Amino acid sequence: MNQLIFRNNNDWTGVITRLTLGLILFPHGAQKALGLFGGYGFNGTMGFFTGTLHLPWLIGFLVIVIEFVGSIAIVAGAGSRIWSALTIILMIGIIFTSHIQNGFFMNWLGNQKGEGFEYHLLVIGLALAIFVNGSGKYCMDQLFLKGTHKLTGVSRK
């Protein structure tokens, strides 16, 4: 099971995709969790999720955790496949609950009712690449695999 989750191709593609995804998600998560970058912080965000969007408390909490903790874990390459899968699920949920009615394009010129879902598709694409390829070089996932090749007979590159 560890091999399935933590193995990676030990290449630069994984590094580039995980840093891109993690650094894009981090400010969004920091807005929600800490109130950085003009965000409302945990309490304000949870109030919006539960009061305005009528999401269950657990779903709102998971959104914050996936965007904030997940982004940090992806940058570090710690459980990137798990966090990428959760990010894909999150983005699909966001598309269908908040953005599908606004069409594909983002609202760069302010002439739409709301934002489209192109950003979310880009995030899904990056997360899918990490899910398939792994974390790449210089990742924490390599620490989780350390020694498992001795137990399973599987060699690491």
UniProtKB/TrEMBL annotation:
How does the protein associate with the membrane? Multi-pass membrane protein
Instruction: List its EC numbers.
Output: 1.-.-.-
Question: One Pfam family from the UniProt entry?
Answer: DoxX
Q: Answer yes or no on keyword Membrane.
A: yes
* Record GO terms (molecular function): oxidoreductase activity
Which UniProt keywords are listed?
Cell membrane, Membrane, Oxidoreductase, Transmembrane, Transmembrane helix
From which domain of life does this come?
Bacteria
Q: Which InterPro entries match?
A: DoxX, DoxX-like_oxidoreductase
Where found? Cell membrane
Gene Ontology terms, cellular component aspect? plasma membrane
The protein's enzyme class: oxidoreductase
Report the sequence similarity comment from the record: Belongs to the DoxX family.
Name the chain's protein. Answer: Putative oxidoreductase CatD
Task: Give the source species.
Answer: Mucilaginibacter gotjawali
